Amino acid sequence: AVNPFKRIKGLYESKVMNKYLDSSPGDKLSPHAYGIAHNAYQSMLEYSGRNQSVLVSGESGAGKTETTKIVMNYLTHISARNSSGDSSDISQAVLQSNPLLEAFGNAKTVRNDNSSRFGKLIQMQFEPHANNPELIAAKIDTYLLEKARITHQMNNERNFHIFYELADGASSQQREHWKYPDKNGLSKFRFVNQSGTFDRRDISDKKQFKYTLEAMDKVGVSDVERERVFCIVAAILHLGNVEFDETSSTDGDGSAITSASRHHAMTCCQLLDVDIELLTKALCTRTISAGGLKGKLGAGIEKQHTVAQAAEARDALAMTLYERMFLWLVWRVNQAISVVGDTDERKKRLSEVLRNRQDRENLAAYYAKNNKNVPEYICDYSIGCLDIFGFEVFEENSFEQLCINYANEVLQQHFNDVVFKQEQNLYESEKINWENISFPDNRKCINMIEGKPIGLLKLIDEECMFPNGSDESLYKKLRDNLPRNQKFEDTFLIDAGTKQRTQANGRRFSIVHFAGEVEYTVYGFYAKNKNELRQESINLTRSSKDDLVRILIPYNAASGSAAVGKSDEYFDMMNKKKKKKKNKARFSLERHQTGTGTQKIQQTTVGGYFKKQLHRAMKHIRESEPHYVRCIKPNDENVRDSLDRARTMEQLNYSGVLEVVRVARAGYSTRFFHQEFLHRYRGLHTVSPKELRRSESKVIPTCKSVMEVANVTEGTDYAVGLTMMFLRPDAYLRLERVKNRIQARSARKIQRVYRAFDVRTRAERAKRLKEAEARRKAEAERIRKEKEAEEERKRLEEIARLEALKEEERKREEEERKRREEEERKRLEEEERKRKEEIARKEHERRVKAVIKLQSIARLLYTQRKVRELILEMERREDEDLRLLEEELEREREAKAKRKARKERKRRKREKEEALRRMEKGGQVELAAWIAIPFLFLLLINNPRILFFLIFAIASGGVTAIALLNNQNGVKPKKGGKRRSKAIKKASESHDTSDEEYSDDDLDAASVEEGVNDESGTSKPKRVRKRDKAKKALKKVNPFRKSTKNKA
After folding, report:
1. I need a labelling partner for 34 at 20 to 30 A (CA). Which of 214, 294, 450, 1035 fits?
2. How far apart are CA 727 and CA 668, in angstroms?
3. Mean pLDDT value across the chain
4. Nearest residue to 251 via CA among 304, 293, 288
């Protein structure tokens, strides 16, 4: 399969798929990934559920992941054609697991924009013992996630896709909630800005993020779980920006989080829901447990980290968090695709598969104990698809590239064993004339990598056992051991024939792989293989209040009992704990939440565990029938419509494809055991199976006679082995056509004989049917007549019975009518009685209410009468008090009037005496005037002006004199004298009628009421009588008193 680096229209459409779905054995179809998947499925059916494996291999960027998805798509379609809805659901879940795992496990590299940074084996379990088996379960096993990519990327590479998909695909509200930057803000974060590459060429991150969310929904990841996963990704991104400063103390140099990066640490703690103090402790300190100190003090010795050690602790925590989150996602996907619909019937079928698998393992143990060979293939109705990382060669190749290339070496060896070695061994054992074909054998390289006691992985593991190991000591160990072994002298090269390097670049070695020589740098081998995580980091995650963060890393991870490879069992156990009581679950978690000491996350190293995983996968592959897809990368620039012939031939050469073509041309691709061959083509010979079982000497001649019927030549078209028949493709197709032709001729003959027999049988059957019909009619007539007579009798009996029933019914109806009338009468009487009782009750209630009302009125009237009597008594007393007060006032007025009269008499007497004195003085003046006037008159007659002036002076002097006389006499003229007299008269009249007397003040008040004004002409204020003052005082004492006027 060649990667075209573009979509080719019409290559993977449903029309093309249907051609392979509807094909039958012998049909010639062009090579296609659908054809590989179809052959695997048909081979499983043809050989009673024999396990199948589809191995997709090739370089990085050759299209292995896409080819695997195409094969899985075909297998899910072929199983879901006539299956139930549950199978369709699991098919969709299996297909949707690819974009989810790609988002978290794939990354852009120099050679591939969507490179798988982990390997996976997808085992698809079909329903056993069914004509058209449907998919009932699946499982995904993953291998060696390249977690070092979290903290370091080379030029033109990216971190895992999810970091960029979140920045480009999430909404602004989501990014704000997750504290995640946008696409432009990624350049400020250390874990993603090292290479300066933020885009991929094959698809946009925004579009891919939608596919990731859809995949999460399909595999059953809830919204809460999705939220927690993205919070962990954001926390890892912020954790990468945490930096450290050197600190000094009495204990030595230490480290602390810088103030500039503290907000990143706070954000990381918020997203992980942990305490900032615990994060600081996990990154900047470590606890050392030594001997009796732990038993006596209980906590060990706390030591400060240097800046470099704190950075290592930060990177280790980030890598472990991401790796455990990825394994949790794989476990979550396996939960969704383990058993379809969670139904009892499918669980029962799956348990049958598991039971057969356990029986097979027990049988294998028995065979191994007794030194017997185990059967080659296993029949579990399972098809596995292996998508392993491709062969990689970069400028800087580290521990991850070593493991990846080691896996490709093992797969290439299996390919060689199946295609070359097993073929040749089989031909030799069957005594078939065969010309050996040379092929590249990589056994030496594999022995050098995994050999014991001196092998590359073994030496690396041995170095990791030392507490003070380092990359430098590892390099020396490799240089001192491997080149000296003659078996590895052509495979392992270290400083051989190369130029003198500097010390930084000198720790390198080269391995001659099947694809070519690769140079590795030892830098980082020790730390990556040891996979060390300190207990302080474990305590940090176990203290989180977030359910997912708390269970990601096992509480006993540092003790070595929770290896990374047991993640499925661990997450299953934690999932079961959620179903228990909360207090018990909390107690079980808190028991092991804290610990002391810095230990490893697993007892076995990464290389050792990966080796076990790879051998387990190869065991599964060896127990199944393999199907190979070799992916070819046409050019290293990843551009479309460009084929580099030299590069393509190089891949075809080292992958063994050219040798496979030579073997296919020279060999026999189809083979059967003798008994199987004779049973399959039993229509082409006449020897019975019993005779063949009795005489084995007749087996080979019979097989040859079958081939003679097909007119094929021995040696050229087929070969007869000791136990097997070997056929070339043309001979097999010719034999199949002859078999089909003979079967068709036999089928026609059988049909002809059967049809003749059927015609005779039908004629005889028709004659028998005619006679039987006549007998049936006569018998039917007799039975009809008897039936009619019986029916007539029954009819008469029925009529009589019905009449009796009608009479009884009439009587019952009459009785029922009377009973209803009696019930109706009683009901009416009861209603009338109830009505009268209701009327009487209402009348009684009305009377009671009237009595109560009358009583209330009487009480009210009685109260009013008492109040009125009290008011009258108070008024009477007030009138008495008023009378007494008026009498007192009357006496005071009389005394005052007498005093006033005496003063008036004295005043008048004085006035008379004064008037007499004034009159005497006035008479003397008048006499003088009368004497002077005549003389003046005579004088003025002669002068009129003087006369007029004199008259005016006399008049003025007279007026002035009169005024002076009045002043001297003390008499002051008053205005309104008549009105004053009238007021006095009116007051006297009122005094006579009411026996009341007015004082001078009263007279003045009366004059004011009549409009009398003083000398100035202004009105005087109205005076208040003492009687009115008394009434007001009594009114305040008794406000209920009525006035005398109203009373009258």
Report:
1. 214
2. 5
3. 78
4. 304
